[in-house]
Each structure stands twice: as C-alpha cells, then as structure tokens.
Write a structure and sequence with these properties.
The protein is mainly alpha-helical. Helices cover 66% and strands 3% of the residues. The chain contains three helices and two strands, in the order ββααα. Strands 1-2 form a two-stranded antiparallel sheet. Strand 1 (4-5) and strand 2 (8-9) form a beta hairpin. The longest helix has 63 residues, at 61-123. The chain is elongated, with a radius of gyration of 44 Å. The model is unreliable at 1-19 (pLDDT under 50). It comes from Panicum virgatum (Blackwell switchgrass). Residues 63-114 form the BZIP domain. This is BZIP domain-containing protein. Its main location: nucleus.
Length: 144
C-alpha cells in the first residue's frame, strides 16, 4: 500500500526503506487514496515510536553507552568549570584582602619610622647619634 504522486512515496510499517514523507503533498495524495491524513500521521508516529523503542531496548546498545558517556562527560566538565570559577573567585578575594592588609602594614611601618626619627635626635642631643650595636662573640665553653 504505497500511494504515489509526483515521485514521492510513503513507506508503511517497519519494512519501509526510509522515513516517511509527511509533507502536505504526500498527505494529500494519501487522502486521495482513501486514507485520511490524520490516520497517516498517527501510523507514522506509531512507526517512529516503535523504531525508537527498538533502538533503546536492544538495537543501539553501543550508541546508548556512548551517549551516556558523553552526557556524563559534559556534566563533569560543567562541574569542573564551576569549581574552577569558585576557586578563582576565592583567590581574587584573598588577594584583595592581602593587598588591603599590606597597605595597612605599610602605613603602620611608615608611622613607626617617622615616630622613631622624631624621637631619636630629641632624646640624646649630646651622645653619639649612632651607637654601634653590641655583637655576640663566641666563647670557649670547654676547658681545653
């Protein structure tokens, strides 16, 4: 039962050579052949659903595994990107905190230097300004 019009064919059932053409011309030609367009669409949808079930159940086992592996790989890659973005944002926060702490410490260091410079000449006007620091010397601890 293959109606023809203008070189187009509809294939019925699972033995058909290719996918059925559901264009308006083919539907109209099938309607002319005493088959209603709605019935044609329903039959074609049932045939395609059966083919998909066959592929899912037993026909395409390798393809399903490959498809599942691809999906898992995509999900894993997405999780990895999210982890990397979170890690980078944490590092950026830490950098900004450390820079702020560095600025505070630099200001404190500068204030201490200024305070030490202001205090040193006023406290010892008659003494040497730069006294040599005491050096540690090694002594003999053994009696020989």
């Amino acid at each position: 039962m293959e109606p023809q019009q203008g070189g187009e064919q509809l294939a019925w059932g699972p033995t058909g050579a290719g996918a059925a053409c559901l264009c308006p011309a083919a539907v109209a030609s099938s309607a002319a052949g005493n088959v209603f367009p709605r019935q044609v669409l329903e039959q074609e949808m049932l045939r395609r659903a059966e083919q998909q079930l066959q592929l899912q159940v037993g026909g395409g086992g390798g393809g399903d595994r490959r498809r599942e592996r691809k999906m898992k790989n995509r999900e894993s890659a997405a999780r990895s990107r999210l982890r990397r973005m979170a890690y980078v944002s944490e590092l950026e926060k830490e950098v900004s905190l450390l820079r702020a702490e560095k600025e505070e410490l630099a200001k404190l260091c500068q204030e201490l230097k200024e305070a030490a410079a202001d205090e040193a000449p006023a406290s010892a006007p008659g003494k040497r300004a730069a006294a040599a620091p005491r050096r540690l010397q090694r002594t003999a601890s053994a009696p020989f």
